[in-house]
Design brief:
Elements (H helix, E strand, L loop, with lengths): L2 H7 L13 H11 L11 E7 H23 L2 H9 L21 H15 L6 H10 L8 E8 L4 H20 L3 E5 L7 H4 L8 E10 L26
Antiparallel strand pairs: 1-2, 2-4, 3-4
Bound molecules: flavin mononucleotide.
The site of flavin mononucleotide has 13 residues, from strand 3.
Protein name: Nitroreductase
Organism: Alloalcanivorax marinus
Keywords: Flavoprotein, FMN, Oxidoreductase
Amino acid sequence: MEFVDALNARHSVRAFRDRPVPGPVLERLLARGATSPSWSNTQPYQIAVATGPVLEALRDDLSRRFERLAPLQRAPAWKKALAALRRDPGLPDGDFRPVQRYPDDLQPRRVATGRGLYRMLGIGRDDHRARHQQMAANFRFFGAPAALFLFVHRGLGVYSVLDAGIFLQTLMLAAVDEGLGSCAQGALGLWRSPLERHFEIPADYQLLCGLSLGYPDTDATVNRFHPDKLPADALTLARR
Ligand SMILES: Cc1cc2nc3c(=O)[nH]c(=O)nc-3n(C[C@H](O)[C@H](O)[C@H](O)COP(=O)(O)O)c2cc1C
């Protein structure tokens, strides 16, 4: 595939076909990701690859946790405190705190993207149930047959995160070249403990995010969503 075609074809896929990703394809994707540049070539990331029974166990575990978390998010402070005391499995135990409040200049972009997605799906502003279902789909990996989880070395701080981002984009583009689709997911960074059950995770590595991966369901409405991007000049600083 032409590089520019792969760039243009990549978008977040949120519905997948029920078709496994063959092992050699997954290995090829990881090998392509491994060509990425990184800080002093330290390659400060580790990847957990979940397929088959491990993926199913995670799908189950994360979905159950999300169903506990959702009502807690709306609960009064005392209920949250009680849940913390009881170590409620719905409370996130991820390594990074989710963003609570978006900066004023970024919030409108976030809102526009969210609105665009819900509009495409025909989900109304007050349809809390449908919104919940869409959020919950994150934890079922949108039906994908494979999921990756990215861990970054805490010792390099933001540079590990930067490197992991480069790795992720390389892998996502390589996926397009293989006819696969993907969705990077911060949501999959909410809980670390379910992953501890299935993978040997070094203590120095922090869970950053996940990625659902598989063959896109081309009939799914959600996959027609292509949010607008800023023109490059909006990202370029004016000269003094
Ligand atoms: C680090 C990262 C985390 C993301 N987390 C989520 C997520 O949790 N759930 C989701 O549906 N999309 C998630 N996305 C996808 C973004 O919403 C998407 O990239 C953005 O809207 C632009 O759309 P595009 O990928 O189709 O170009 C994430 C993307 C990135 C890069």
